[in-house]
Amino acid sequence: MGIMAAIGVILPFPYYYCLWRYPQSWVDLCGKGNDPSAVMARVSLVLKVLQFLSLFSVSSLSWPPPLYFYPLFLFGQFLNFRVYQLLGEAGTYYGVRFGKEIPWRTEFPYGVIRDPQYVGSIMSLLGCLSWVPFQYILLWILGYLFMIHLESSEDPNTRARPLD
After folding, report:
1. What is the DSSP letter of 32?
2. What angle do CA 154, 159, 163 make, to 5 degrees?
3. What is the DSSP letter of 110?
């Protein structure tokens, strides 16, 4: 396993961990007048690009992809887009941890699939198995499983107070 590719794959997870566990520190760091969810979204985009570049560095792309690619990748991306559509940027990027009121959603996929954004991401990754070595996909999925576990026990008392 290429160590640099592996580091690139797991790069976002310590960041997400710190934001989840220490939301007030992030709100304070972002400062007054800056939306901590929007700043998180921008940093996450950079980390996601590095993650994808890491995967591409060890991938062997070929066309056409196997038939299992289409349902896994397309439904996985549908779940991701649907989550963002329902929750918006603040709901997707830890707004509740940063002291924002995020409405509870029951529309599909909520109420049907637990953690639909992570499930969608995992499905999309599994769809790419013909191109990316298994160990990198597994590493990325383990990062998602870690985050699912971490986020499953949110304590409202540890939420940040907005700076106003």
Report:
1. T
2. 160
3. T
Residue 5 CA to residue 23 CA, distance in Å, equals: 28
Helix, strand and coil in the chain, % to nearest 5: 65, 0, 35
Per-residue model confidence as pLDDT tens for the chain (164 residues):
699 999 999 999 999 999 999 999 999 999 999 999 999 999 999 999 999 999 999 999 888 999 999 999 999 999 999 999 999 999 999 999 999 999 999 999 998 999 999 999 999 999 999 999 999 999 999 999 999 999 998 888 899 998 76
- The two three-digit tokens of residue 81, written as one number: 């887009």
**Tokens representing residue 44 in the block:** 């996450």
Establish how many alpha carbons lie within 13 A of residue 68's alpha carbon, considering only the half-sphere containing its beta carbon: 9
Question: CB of 84 within 8 A of CB of 39?
Answer: no
Provide the whole-model pTM. Answer: 0.92
d(Cα 55, Cα 87) in Å, to the nearest integer? 28
Are the beta carbons of 89 and 37 closer than 8 angstroms?
A: yes
Question: Cβ-count burial of 6 within 10 angstroms (0-12 exposed, 13-18 middle, 19+ buried)?
Answer: middle
For 97, the 3-state DSSP assignment is coil
63: left (phi over 0), alpha (psi -120 to 50) or beta: beta
